[in-house]
TrEMBL record, chain A:
It comes from the Bacteria. The chain crosses the membrane at residues 6-25, 37-55, 75-100. This is AzlD domain-containing protein. Pfam families: AzlD. It comes from Mycetocola manganoxydans.
UniProtKB/TrEMBL annotation, chain B:
The lineage of its organism: Bacteria, Bacillati, Actinomycetota, Actinomycetes, Micrococcales. This is Branched-chain amino acid ABC transporter permease. It comes from Mycetocola manganoxydans. Keywords: Cell membrane, Membrane, Transmembrane, Transmembrane helix, Transport. The keyword Cell membrane applies. It is found in: Cell membrane. It is a multi-pass membrane protein. The keyword Amino-acid biosynthesis does not apply. GO terms for cellular component: plasma membrane. Its main location: membrane. The chain crosses the membrane at residues 20-42, 62-87, 136-158, 164-183, 190-208, 214-232. It comes from the Bacteria. Belongs to the AzlC family. InterPro entries: Brnchd-chn_aa_trnsp_permease. GO terms for biological process: L-valine transmembrane transport.
Amino acid sequence: MTLWHIVLLASIACVAIKLAGYAIPASWLENPATARTADLLTVALLAALIAVQTLGTGQQLVVDARVPALAVAGLLYWLRAPFLVVVIAAAAVAAVLRLWTGMA
Amino acid sequence: MTAEPRAARSPLQVATRQGVAVGVATAAYGVSFGALAVAAGLDVWQACVLSLVMFTGGSQFALVGVLASGGAAAGSTAIASAVLLGVRNAAYGMRMKPVVGVSGWWRTVAAAWVTIDESTAVALAQDDPEARKRGFWVTGIIVYVGWNLTTLLGALIGDLMGDTRAYGLDAAAAAAFLGLIWPRLRSHQTIAVASAAAVIAAALTPVVAPGVPVIAAAVVAVVFGLTNWLGAPRRKASLS
């Protein structure tokens, strides 16, 4: 698959899911187990992405400047800082650590 | 600020104001998506197509996140991550169908296209049926236009940056995901699911192909979802 195939396939699939929501009967989600699983799916995938994004480098686990950056991000969200401020702050922490301490 | 009394605002005006506020705030972080997409190896056009067509932030960040670690070889797992994260939009669609009350296929397609976290949230925050409809469309349209403009801007900036690690963009990606999950971490169940998923994904990273750890972590959601482990004993599991 080329990057274009990946981009187009994933995009079309996500639009199809949205359309399906308007096409399938509402009773499908009335089952609490189904509704709960759909909800928790989002949480599980995002958490997994955070772990891989923070510790993964290819197939290796690495502790580098991303870890303190994520810790700062967590602290800022806890202090109710806006999304964009937190994302920029996290990038700045990692960038400064790499520049000044030579951290990977 | 004018001394406009609160009571003078109609429910429609309130919905419009909320939609504009949420729309502008959300659209602003399209810049980070555009820059991260380019850092992951996509070109500016591919980043823009994702925002124009896929148009659901979590899935977009997930796709470029997996591509960043595994490249095009991780294509199928990248697609699967994006699709699984998009499943909640189907749930939103079912919820929004009676709210939007659309008739005609092109309006339904337009409504489905802009059915995302933000448009659903603003619509459901209103009490009046007309205000719900207004909130949905105002938020959806402003986020759509803004998100696409800022994606283009971010992609162009990312293109000029060169080595994006030097600017900490890889850390920005993790921070962005943390922001998306943060409002949902309000119950023991969601915190347990998030922790277990993160541990499983990290543990699997050295042993399986890039992208697979994220998909594998979805099993945690299925187990907790079906058993309602650590969930509220009765009624709905959580308000997240």
